[in-house]
Amino acid sequence: MGAAVGSLSGVATCRVGRRADRRVDRRVDRRAARCALALLLASSGLASASAQRPAAPGPCAAAPAADTAGAVGTGTLSREGARLVYRVAPAPLAVGRPFAIRACAEVGVAGAASLPRRIRFDAQMPQHGHGMNYQPSVVDEGGGWYRFEGSVLHMPGRWQLVFDVFDDTGRRRLTTDVDVGR
Fold it and tell me: Average of pLDDT values for 152-165?
């Protein structure tokens, strides 16, 4: 079972599931603590205004419906007027296990952002001076979303996920580091 924070008629609510035999499950206790903290922040007004108000929807505001299954690792990268949202499945990344990434990028300022011409994905090991042994296939899913499939990180260590965002003004490179163990 799990915990859920929600709103019912504008009032914050919290549900926490328990195991049938009533033994305390650490995961449930952690979820309950997170849920209680969220309720406390919501009721005290200490939550930031940006957390209470959703950002203006841009081209990457909603993922395709098929994106919800199995997508656990998510992130947002920003640089030089470009913003990229990505989701990795399955997550966490592991050595030798194929994975897919769905990504969407916006170029420009919030509210006036546009979609780039294309997005390219690669993964590199900067300390070793090489990248993946596999070239991922790419599928344009429409609405600015791209799916990169068939990527494999073939050895443990620090990898850099590299997204190149192309528009009429050139290329913007957005990166994030991930540590992959055995």
Answer: 94
